[in-house]
Amino acid sequence: GGERYMCERVSVRAAAKELGCSPQAVREHMKKKLWDLGDVFSPKQTGKSVWEYHIYRKKLDRHLGKTESE
């Protein structure tokens, strides 16, 4: 199913490799809402001391310019 694909997650490190930039750059762009790759959670939201980044395969593919058929 397509449903599982939608919520398939990619690590920040893996996404950075595909995008050709550093993991930190991926985090900064997501935090500033420059790249829509998934969801960003602040420490206030998660109750943890660090920010959390959820990158979704489908959004990363769209950002990279890939279409559904590829």
Description of the molecule:
There is one protein chain. With 70 residues, this protein is of the alpha+beta class. The protein has 5 helices and 3 strands, in the order H-E-H-H-E-H-E-H. The chain has a 3-stranded antiparallel sheet. The two termini are 16 Å apart.
Biggest sheet architecture: 3 strands, antiparallel
Chain-averaged pLDDT? 90
Strand content: 15-25%
Q: Considering DSSP H and I runs of 4 or more, what fraction of the residues is helical?
A: 40-55%
Outline the low-pLDDT stretches.
none
Derived from helix and strand composition plus strand pairing, the structural class reads alpha+beta
Distance between the termini: 16 Å
Instruction: Report the order of strands and helices.
Output: HEHHEHEH
Count, helices: 5
Biggest sheet: strands side by side, in what order?
A: 1-3-2
The whole-angstrom Rg is 12 Å
Shape: globular
Helices and strands, with pairings:
Elements: H1 2-6, E1 9-10, H2 12-19, H3 23-31, E2 38-41, H4 43-46, E3 52-56, H5 57-63
Helix pairs in contact: 2-3
Characterize this entry briefly.
The protein is α+β, with helices and mostly antiparallel strands and 70 residues long. 47% of the residues lie in helices and 16% in strands.
Question: Tags for this entry?
Answer:
70 residues, three-stranded antiparallel β-sheet, 5 helices, 3 strands
